[in-house]
Specification:
The protein is of the alpha/beta class. A five-stranded parallel beta sheet has the order 2-1-3-4-5, sandwiched between helices. The chain has a four-stranded antiparallel beta sheet with strand order 6-7-8-9, with helices on one face. It has a two-stranded antiparallel sheet with strand order 10-11. Helix 6 crosses helix 7 and helix 6 crosses helix 8. The protein contains eight helices and eleven strands. It has two domains: about 110 residues, Rossmann fold (3-Layer(aba) Sandwich); about 90 residues, Winged helix-like DNA-binding domain superfamily/Winged helix DNA-binding domain (Arc Repressor Mutant, subunit A). This is Sensory transduction protein RegX3.
């Protein structure tokens, strides 16, 4: 397999490259997030460190998952349960904490490949709620066929709800997926963005609030 190794530690990268090559893999190493994002499209498997110098690895993971279902294992020194959950919820297929044995890494890679990759994100998926049309692939929203300009996070919140229209998303889940921090649940950031969605579309029922539970996409009238 063509393995993209995203690791800024030269010594560890060299050791992993040797081990992966010994197991028959072709390894391309990226030490920075910008290079990882450029190379991810040509990889069969990605090993991603989270502590990168130019961008947090979780943001790299989210960006990769917007366009690719490539098998991916997070390989990091972050051991906190919160970090593990954030990695898995952001789209990692597995999460391996340093230090680890090479044999364990190889076994986990084989297990991920056996499970198969997730379906590719729908590139032409359009969700309609009444006269509101949400184009997930193009990141555009139309109301009565007129385009509506949303901020990046406003669209991200709406897209998260639109991908599974009948599913209720908790505040913590939305904050984790969109802001990358579920501990922001006490702030008003999410409320402000939901209010912005309702105001800009002129459709108060587009996002439904379920008190004490979370939010879901509204139903067509």
């Amino acid at each position: 397999m063509r393995v993209l190794l995203v690791e800024d530690d030269d010594r560890l990268a060299a050791a992993l490259t040797t081990a992966l090559t010994r197991h028959g893999h072709q390894v391309v190493r990226a030490a920075r997030a910008v290079d990882a994002l450029r190379l991810a499209g040509g990889a069969d498997f990605v090993l991603l460190d989270l502590g990168l110098p130019d961008m947090d690895g979780l943001e790299v993971l989210r960006r990769v998952r917007r366009s690719s279902a490539v098998p991916l294992i997070v390989v990091t020194a972050r051991v906190e349960e919160r970090e593990v959950l954030r990695g898995l919820r952001s789209g990692a297929d597995d999460y391996l904490v340093k230090p680890f044995r090479t044999a364990e890494l190889m076994a986990r890679m084989e297990a991920v490949v056996r499970r198969g990759t997730r379906p590719q994100p729908a590139r032409d998926q359009v969700v309609c709620v009444g006269d509101v049309r949400i184009d997930l692939a193009c990141r555009r929203v139309y109301v009565a066929d007129e385009p509506v300009t949303l901020t990046r996070r406003e669209f991200d919140v709406l897209a998260l709800l639109a991908r599974q229209p009948g599913v209720v998303r908790s505040r913590e889940e939305i904050l984790d997926e969109v802001w990358g921090d579920p501990l922001l649940s006490a702030s008003r950031s999410l409320d402000v963005h939901v209010a912005g969605l309702r105001a800009k579309t002129g459709r108060p029922g587009l996002v439904v609030t379920l008190r004490g539970t979370g939010y879901r996409l509204g139903s067509p009238p």
